[in-house]
Amino acid sequence: MTLNAEQLAMRKSGITGSEIAAVNGLSPFIGPHEVWGRKLGLIPDPKANKNMERGTFLEPAIRNWMRHRLTIGIEEPQTARHKKHPIVIATDDGRAFPITGGDPFAVVEIKCPGDFTDGWEKPEERADGIPSYVYAQVVWEMAVADLDVAIVGVFQRGDLVTYQIPYNQEMFENMLEQAYILWELVKQRKPPKYDGTERAAAFLKKFYSTDNGEMIDMTGKHGRLMEDTLQEFLQAKQDKKEVTSRLIALGASVQEIISDNMGLETDNFKATWKTTKDRTKIDWQGIVKEIDPDPDPELVYKHTTTKPGHRMFLVKEKKGAKDE
Question: Cα–Cα distance between 45 and 75 in angstroms, integer?
Answer without folding.
Answer: 27
